[in-house]
Amino acid sequence: MTRALIIVDVQNDFCEGGSLAVAGGAAVAAGISLVLEKAGDRWDHVVATKDWHINPGSHFSDTPDYLDSWPRHCVVGTPGAEFHPELRTERVEAVFRKGEYQAAYSGFEGQTEGGETLAAWLRERDVTEVELVGIATDHCVRATALDARAEGFATTVLLELTAGVAAGTTAAALEELRAASIETTGTPVVSS
């Protein structure tokens, strides 16, 4: 069995001080780094995803509903699009950028600079199992996990290394993950 860790959207704009901050984001970044340092040999491969917006249309709004529309975030070329400084990225082998011109929640919608998709990258390396961490539990982590399962990977979300936007949407996401036979461990950080 070959296992990969997928680090989802641990970017400045999604952490405290960012334009779309999720409470606990910086702690999640630090926690992922600690686990990579102490138990990183658990994964054969480590990859990451990034929201990478240029003009995603109605995904950005001056009056966001925080479900389908959001304040401007992770705009290409801004500090908000970069990985949070608490996240150590030495082990990250590939970064999959998503959402340049449309909303994109799943890392499986992204691609490397060279145009390779996440599913193709994992299959090329004979990955059979993925574990997910990152931000936000109820949006991009949820969507990436569901797509991982749909692509045929055994999928686990390490909830203790995720942060959710809101209690209600996080609870709904957890039910959706369980219904899709996605394993979960721990409890996510959720502020409200």
TrEMBL record:
Family indicated by similarity: Belongs to the isochorismatase family.
InterPro entries per UniProt: Isochorismatase-like_dom, Isochorismatase-like_sf, Isochorismatase_Nicotinamidase
EC number: 3.5.1.19
Spans traversing the lipid bilayer: none
The protein's name in its UniProt record: nicotinamidase
Top-level taxon of origin: Bacteria
Functional pathway: Cofactor biosynthesis; nicotinate biosynthesis; nicotinate from nicotinamide: step 1/1
UniProt domain Isochorismatase-like: residue ranges: 4-184
Matches recorded under Pfam families: Isochorismatase
Keyword annotations from UniProtKB, A to Z: Hydrolase, Metal-binding, Pyridine nucleotide biosynthesis
PANTHER family: LD05707P, PYRAZINAMIDASE/NICOTINAMIDASE
